[in-house]
Amino acid sequence: MVFYLGQNKSPEFFSRDEIGKDDGQSHVEIKQVKTYNCDQVRAVGYMLEPLKCIFCGSLEVVFLQYVDGGSGYCESCGEWQ
User: Fold this and answer.
1) Quick one: pLDDT at residue 35?
2) Which one of 4, 24, 56, 61 counts the least CB within 10 Å of its CB?
């Protein structure tokens, strides 16, 4: 499961693993997940996920490899990067 943490700040991306469900008790383990930007994708030459917008910090970035040598579009703020 994936969720966002923080309000009125750049969102941080975390993953949540629930463990111990068999005994009726559950623990939640939270760990930070590395995010990438479009420059890193162009540098390595293959897709990295999740992509983070350099303008608004959103994780709603779509990378289009056929546009201008590879460009990302943020669906939250509408900026190309």
Assistant:
1) 93
2) 24
